[in-house]
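Workshop exercise sheet. Pairs work together: one partner reads the sequence aloud, the other fills in the structure field after running the prediction. Swap roles for the next sheet.
Pair: D.N. / O.F.
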Amino acid sequence: MRRFPPPWLPLLLALLVLPASAPADDPPAEIDSGEAEAFLASIVPSPELQAGLDVTVKDLRTGDARLRKQEIRVSWIDLPPGGPARLAHWNGDSPVYPASVPKFVYLMAAYAWRDEGRLEIDPIFERELRAMIYRSSNRATQRVVHRLTLTEPGGRLDPEQYQEFVSRRHAVKRWLDRLGVEDLHTVHPTYDGGGDLYGRDEQFLNDKGIEGALPNQQGPYFNRQAMTANASAKLLALLARDLALSPESSREVREHMRRDSRKQPYLRRRIAGGVDPEDETFEIFSKTGTWGPIFADAGIVRRTTDGHQIVVVAFLEATPGNSAYRGSFIAKLTRAAVRRLFTAAEAPSDPPRTRGRRDGAPG
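Structure field:
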């Protein structure tokens, strides 16, 4: 007797191939990005702030032999209430792979998609976003990126399907371009290893022809994520000023990024460690990154009494042949920024000494 396929089989097969074949054009943005671009153009380099940053970095390097063996990329942006934004940086235009820091970009993109009416953040997806930021879960990040870019993991793709996949994976980068934020090559999720990187994801990571990737890669992964400290700081400044997202979405994103070193002790050596956790006049919103030679953090410090905010970004990378840094540079750098820029606030005390980064702490 002849057997016919069940009537639902064609629909199932269509759904399985849809992510690789559906149109990849982004819907028109509902949020006007002109104000964001104008704000970014108004950020001015500050000789005074630059001098303070230079002295801070040089002093901290002088007293820390391990730190002198690291490539340091730092950016400060001062956001005083009612005043112009000011920038200072140390190697801030040099791209680096910053481990888990790109996860805050995907968090912002999720809420941008919601603002534009193309994504609903239901309780299940909300938990994925929280896991991506608070626990720095790579598996959650993979699911978030799949949903943002309408892609799915799977085997290698033929040339036509692969080009569609590449276009979809650039969705977040196209949104950043509309805002006027350059030098953030955020086109991949993060991976644990052990089988979660394969097929089309590996095909994309191995692609030598993708523009904007981390330069001078020797392989096998030529198309690495790449971020500069300055571009990261500018995107965070937009978040601080509610210019990349609606005010409601900006608030929810910052809440996901809220940091408290009492609940996460490893943060004592990051941005949160530069502010006294008992001082309720300060709020910290950040995303850390730790992997191999990388020790990184990027965030906002806000003084609640007057709304004065600063952005601090620090990416440390061990130079070839040297061990990775896990010291207190980022906390001390933040403390110096707070002392310099929040002149009316009492300087925060030194963070408690720790024996090192807690095993298993998220990146």
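Discussion prompt: The beta strands are 44-45, 70-79, 86-90, 184-185, 226-227, 282-291, 294-303, 309-318. What would you look at next?
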